[in-house]
Amino acid sequence: MPSLMSLSSSARLLGGLVAAAVDADRPLMVNLVVTRRCNLSCGYCTEYDKVSPPVPLETLKQRIDQLAALRAVIITLTGGEPLLHPQIAEVVAYVRQRGMTPAMNSNAFLLSEPMIHKLNDAGLYALQVSVDGVTPNKVTKKTLKPLLPKLRMLAAHARFRVRINSVFGSTPPEEALEVARAAIALGFDAKCALARNPDGTMVPLDARARAVYDEIANMDGRKLGLLGEDFQDKLLRDGEVEWKCRAGARFFHVCENGLVHLCGPRFGANTKPLADYGLDDIRRAFDTRKACASSCPVAYAHMASKVDRFRSQRDDVDPATAPPPVISKRNDGRVFLRVAA
């Protein structure tokens, strides 16, 4: 049975979403990096760092204040691995204190029962845990075999929602199906994200993988609602999808340096300090078509843009939203493609 706190949080979130749907000037979802450091090194990830210190708590509070001034609805704390931030529960509590809904992305390896209780008390609304397959491999360590005890701990103690997300393509497709079944059996939401090329486009699925993806998509008990992945079905079927991307307005990233980025694949394009990001920037991003939209598999951008599908958007395309990729290196020495800064 849902707790009174979870019911109150859900009611507040629903109220914020309804108000924001009417007011196109409000960000719906913001990803706030609390530390770039991660405890894992997954082969498909370009977003981690082994050595960066956590963003100081007071700096994060200033950024949360700035997001509250923009009247953002949901703040997702991310990284790296946010549980590496020593004051993560205080960050969650401050988001809630400022009237916004706190969520978090995590690989869950660092979760403990005391930490779950701290996150409960801080008012965390939702936790998304990455579980890509069943057995660790060279591409991903985030798999069911080592994480199942943590997931059972969450099922027993968490008062917040838990969503299990699998990056489809990082393990054999049948393993993603087993993960989805395990998630639903534990009472969690189950979600599949399509693997992305370094330029942000979708990695195609072969016939075998597509059949498994369709089976996952049609499973009973996948309580996704607004988080539905109908856009992924269109991308897989047609290779492109027609929609109006509102990244930079309804959804954006704030990195560890306090800069606003449109989304993960466009990290470094058209950045601006959050302290200087205002209504004119939101309206410009809202109203401008993105050159990369038709092939975009970024779920957060699609979800946050759904409420504005019937609102107009200018015909001009901002070419700077899709700069050519450049060769860069991660701090473990491996080479990857990243959008030019």
* Number of spatially distinct domains: 1
The CATH H-level homologous superfamily: Aldolase class I
State the CATH topology.
TIM Barrel
Instruction: Compute the separation of the termini in Å.
Output: 48 Å
Task: Indicate the overall shape.
Answer: globular
Q: What share of the residues lie within helices?
A: 25-40%
DSSP summary: helix tally: 10
Q: How large a portion of the residues is in β-strands, by DSSP E?
A: 15-25%
**Class of secondary structure makeup:** alpha/beta
Please count the beta strands (DSSP E, at least 2 residues each). Answer: 13
Q: Overall pLDDT, averaged?
A: 83
Written account of the structure:
The chain is α/β, with parallel strands linked by helices. The chain is built from 10 helices and 13 strands. It has one domain: Aldolase class I (TIM Barrel). It has a 9-stranded mixed beta sheet. Strands 10-11 form a two-stranded parallel ribbon. α3 links the parallel β2 and β3. It is globular, with a radius of gyration of 19 Å. The termini are far apart. The C terminus is likely disordered.
